[in-house]
Design a protein that fits this description.
By secondary structure, this protein is of the alpha/beta class. The protein folds into two domains: about 120 residues, Nucleic acid-binding proteins (OB fold (Dihydrolipoamide Acetyltransferase, E2P), Beta Barrel); about 325 residues, Rossmann fold (3-Layer(aba) Sandwich). The chain has 18 helices and 16 strands. The strands form five sheets. A five-stranded antiparallel sheet has the order 3-2-1-4-5, with helices on one face.
Length: about 575
């Protein structure tokens, strides 16, 4: 019986679970008597130890009575149940055995009691073993049922996926001739998108200085330029750099592109003969039936290769021709380029585009081997055209459009439409005797993504001090009624109100604070006056207007700190002109 139970328990792995079934009185047999009346007992039922082993014998310490001899039967208690850390302490070399405590000796007449105890233990073990086996088999059957159900679900899912795949393949075969000609909207992903700089204005001035641009005497030009650049990028406006030849207008654009965008600026020279949008954008060639893009439009297209970086495009000497003639479509489209439903610039008729798509579809549906060399060239030509230059060309959202101009007798005046949509930075005359000549070096990069800038400005608009904003706007509104409407033909409107809020938000975002001595003048108001308000000044001289203008100049003198390029000084000097006072004309 003992051996049979032991085989069962060994099959179960770790048999210590049966310790709870051991009887309180374990039956055993004296197998050896030692000199000091200590004994070794052989258990008559399996007694499992740790690590899957079994106790073959127990050590019984010396006892005075009853006197035992070998082959006697006894009942004993396992002192440290399941452990083998007891034994005969007198012999260090002897194998350590579990320690037993004698309960009583069994007489010859009580042998049947031992057999009954052993039989009951065996029945308990076998019963529990069968119970575990049944539970195990029941669990296996349940797992098999679950597995079969899952296999059926997987088969049904696979069939459904195969059906969907077949449908998609079917649709792809239908649209394949046209699919390659759809606009490509995938952006180059820049995974290293940094946080917004903490002190952007300081970093900006330092980077310009590193690139070889000396700080302006007014200390306002660089800051006004930065605020205007960010405002124009956000709202889809134009930044105009006004000044005489050689003051560094084009150079600062090039350096700005290296600092903000990490790539070169696109400088597009404007020609005096430009008369309509085709000179700026390109034209559709009706003979070859293709669109011929201009360098400017190519620069716009290339800007979309990485929309996570700003792209600075500059129209150099933009008033050599009348900008309202060649760029009116661009200015209107630029203002709404940030809207989700922006249509973009219309390059050619949508009917022409439909005809081109049909031609592409017909050529693409023919096997390549069956196309003639001329047809293959035409297909490749149309593929590039319809990928790059759709009828409605979307202006990429990362564009910063700038323009340089000279205000003299050889150039055209700007129209109110252009001035109202522009931020103007006036450059002072070049200082040639300065001893502070900076060495041109690689400037530090300021990594701001267009999307991050938009998110930051939108968030800042929610937390700006509306009361201070209203007070400053009230000053501009009073000037608008008192001076602008009576002097000039370009008063402030709703666009200026929107631009002022953006301008204010950016000034707070990049942490521009009032310098010592400027009192309570908000920096946003000071910079906005010189970039968006004063460029509207142009009027015919008479005594009434001249007196009104002098009164305004007196009020403006309080904001002289924010003058980027001797604007007030130049306006004061123009009071002696005979006919016209203009922000733009030098004489």
């Amino acid at each position: 019986m003992k051996n049979e139970l032991r085989e069962i328990l060994e099959e179960l792995g770790n048999p210590q679970w049966i310790l709870s079934f051991l009887p309180r009185e374990i039956p055993g047999k004296i197998i050896k008597k030692l000199r000091n009346n200590d004994y070794f007992i052989e258990p008559l039922i399996p007694c499992p130890l740790e690590k899957g082993e079994f106790a073959d014998q127990f050590y019984l310490p010396p006892i005075s009575e009853p006197e035992l001899k070998e082959s006697d039967f006894v009942f004993f208690k396992w002192e440290n149940l399941g452990k083998n850390d007891q034994g005969d302490p007198s012999n260090k070399k002897r194998k350590r055995n579990p320690r037993a405590r004698l309960l009583r000796k069994i007489s010859q007449d009580s042998i049947a009691q031992i057999e009954e105890s052993i039989a009951k233990f065996g029945q308990d073990i076998q019963s529990d073993y069968l119970l575990q086996v049944n539970e195990y088999l029941s669990g296996v059957e349940k797992l098999q049922v679950d597995l079969e159900l899952r296999e059926k679900d997987l088969e049904a899912g696979k069939k459904e996926l195969d059906d969907h795949k077949a449908q998609i393949d079917n649709q792809l075969k239908i649209i394949e001739p046209y699919r390659r000609f759809l606009p490509i909207n995938e952006d180059e992903i820049d995974l290293d998108i940094p946080d917004f700089p903490e002190d952007l204005n300081t970093s900006w001035i330092r980077a310009l200085s590193q690139s070889g641009i000396s700080p302006s005497q007014s200390k306002a030009l660089e800051t006004s330029y930065l605020i205007s650049l960010l405002s124009a990028a956000y709202s889809g406006s134009l930044v105009l750099l006004n000044g005489s030849v050689g003051v560094g207008k084009t150079n600062i654009v090039k350096k700005s592109a290296q600092i903000l965008a990490g790539r070169e600026a696109e400088i597009i020279p404007v020609r005096p003969g430009w008369l309509d949008p085709s000179d700026l954008l390109g034209f559709f060639d009706p003979i070859k039936e293709v669109f011929r893009p201009s360098p400017f439009l190519t620069a716009l297209k290339n800007s979309s290769s990485n929309k996570n970086r700003f792209s600075l495009i500059c129209l150099d000497e933009l008033n050599l021709a009348k900008i309202e003639n060649y760029a009116s479509d661009l200015l209107s489209a630029l203002e709404y380029s940030q809207a989700e439903n922006a249509q973009g610039i219309l390059l050619y008729s949508e009917d022409i585009q439909d005809d081109l798509l049909k031609e592409c579809g017909n050529l693409a549906s023919v096997e390549s081997e069956s196309l003639s060399p001329k047809e293959k060239i035409r297909l490749e030509q149309l593929t590039r055209l319809l990928n790059d230059y759709r009828a409605h060309f979307r202006i990429p959202p990362n564009i910063c459009l700038l323009g340089t101009l000279n205000s003299d007798q050889t150039t055209y005046e700007l129209s109110p439409k252009v001035i109202d949509r522009a931020y103007v930075i006036n450059f002072p005359p070049a200082i040639l005797d300065s001893s502070d000549i900076n060495k041109d070096s690689d400037p530090e990069k300021i990594n701001i993504t267009p999307q991050l800038l938009r998110e930051k400005i939108n968030a800042q608009k929610e937390v700006i001090d509306r009361e201070k904003l209203r007070k400053s706007w009230k000053i501009l509104c009073e000037w608008n009624e008192k001076y602008l409407k009576k002097l000039v033909g370009i008063p402030l409107g709703h666009r200026a109100r929107r631009d002022f809020e953006v301008f204010w938000s950016i000034t707070e975002l990049i942490k521009i604070k009032s310098d010592v001595g400027q009192g309570e003048i908000p920096p946003a108001l000071g910079h906005f006056i010189f970039t968006k308000v004063l460029p509207r000044i142009v009027f015919n001289i008479d005594d009434t207007k001249n007196n009104l203008f002098q009164e305004w100049l007196k009020e403006l003198s309080e904001y002289k700190y924010y003058d980027p390029g001797n604007v007030l000084e130049q306006l004061e000097s123009k009071q002696n002109n005979r006919y016209v006072i203009s922000y733009w004309k030098n004489s």
